[in-house]
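Extended Data, panel c. Modelled sequence:
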Amino acid sequence: MRAIDLLILLNDFNKNNFICIENDDTFLNVVDIKVTDEGVFLVHSTKITALKNWEFSLLINKKELLELPIFYSYQKNDYQLFGFRVSDNRILLG
C-alpha cells in the first residue's frame, strides 16, 4: 500500500483512534516513521503511546512520501503494509 492510499482510507475514521501494527496477535504502537529509498517504514514501540490518526496523517502527508510504499519491521523481517482493521479505539495496520 502506498502512503496516499492509506491517507485516503484513514480519512474516514475517527481522528483520535490510535495507530497500531497487528502482527502474530501482537499489537505494536506506531510512534514515528523512517523514510528510506525503498519506502516509508513505521517505527513502533510497546512502551510509548501510539500516535493518533491525525498525528500519523500529518507525518505521512508530504508530497515526497505520497507515492512511496509503507513497510514495517518485525523480528528482523520487513513486511509491506496491505491493509488494516479497526478494533475498539485502534486502527490495526497489517
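The chain has a mean pLDDT of 93. This feature is highlighted in the accompanying rendering.
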